[in-house]
Amino acid sequence: MDGILRHGQGLRGMKLRAAFLAVLGLGLAACPESASPQSPFMRANAEEHRGKPYVLLISLDGFRHDYLDVHDAPNLERWAAEGVRAESFVPGYPSETFPNHYTIATGMYPGTHGIVSNDFFDRTRNARYRLGDRDAVEDGGWYGGTPLWVAAERAGMVTASYFWVGTEADIQGVHPSYYYRYDGSIAQAERVRAVLEWFSWPEEYRPHLVTLYFAAIDSAAHDHGTRSEELASAIARLDDQLGVLFDGLRALDFGVNVFVVSDHGMVDVDPARVIYLDDIVDLQGVRAIGSGSHSLLYVDGEARVEALYEALKNAENHYRVFRSGETPEHWNAAHPRLGDLIVAAEAPYSIRFRNMRGEVSGGAHGYDPVRHPDMHGVFFAQGPGLADAMTIPSFENIHIYPLVMRILGLEIVEEIDGRLDVLEGILR
Prior knowledge:
The chain is an alpha/beta fold. It contains 13 helices and 21 strands. A hairpin with a 4-residue loop joins strand 5 (119-122) and strand 6 (127-130). Helix 9 (216-224) runs antiparallel to helix 10 (229-250). The protein is globular and about 65 Å long.
């Protein structure tokens, strides 16, 4: 049932308002302040939230900080110029999709919320998390922190998601009121249409927080590189749909605070610059997870850890090796899930193993965003609660969470890494 709109406790059939909702197969959300049996909607906002602002959080996966300077995207360029624009949006380490989408959603570094990479191992659970594993991705026990939609739902506010890391999982037993299981084949136009439909609902039932995700830019750059015609075409197609979305939002009789962000940037890698870890050290008996920008090594026994560290350290060339707990301070990565040793490549080099098929090509990410600014993404914002035509310095992506919580009028109930003062100046 990929691509079917879901809710927190499974699908229950009921008669829905309009053919659009019937096709989507909505179910009754198991949240407080649910709609009455006579209502065609699944969930109603608590009384105190009616009249509060609206937020749309859009992710353009892999949209590098300078793509608007390199590729044509007139709708996004015009829209960005009218609102707030950051010089760049700095991801946490590693600059990968899952860790940074969840960082944006929680205001916590990957080393705090625990989704430390797209692929990692947890010794306590004796289990592996990876983005392609549906059971892991949908298991809320992997995810720390309180993402925006969980905070909003717990407060009695309706939320909706057309894809975002974590929305498929029962984090603290909570999903968005309306959400989709990820299906990359769903057309961009369909995602835009659904979001505009959500915002067309009556105020009592209208989501106050909506997330929307597009992967096409990331995919094109991975396959063809950052200056390819294929990437330029992917950006142009997405820009067309963003134009439809922006026009639709302008036509509403209320304003929406829209944030356009990306989880990371991209760099072109060199197929001739490859680091084969198993040529440097004997990895027999070692659980080595990840390739490309970095590899996490899970090793049994302190003596073996130390021996591998010394061997890798002595051979360092276009990579760096760190013991767990001794990583660079700006990584904020003191988490056991990162393994006993972390081997981090320097772009445009890639880490590989001899048993891997194919060759390195196209674009990649995951590298240290401080050492490699091409890992930086974009931040654009526009709406009734936000400043006009303002450019601000680069900032870390942990800081968007407290800003969105302020706009929605929600209380932050736990310690986070983000700070409101970093972005408070862009509020009206």
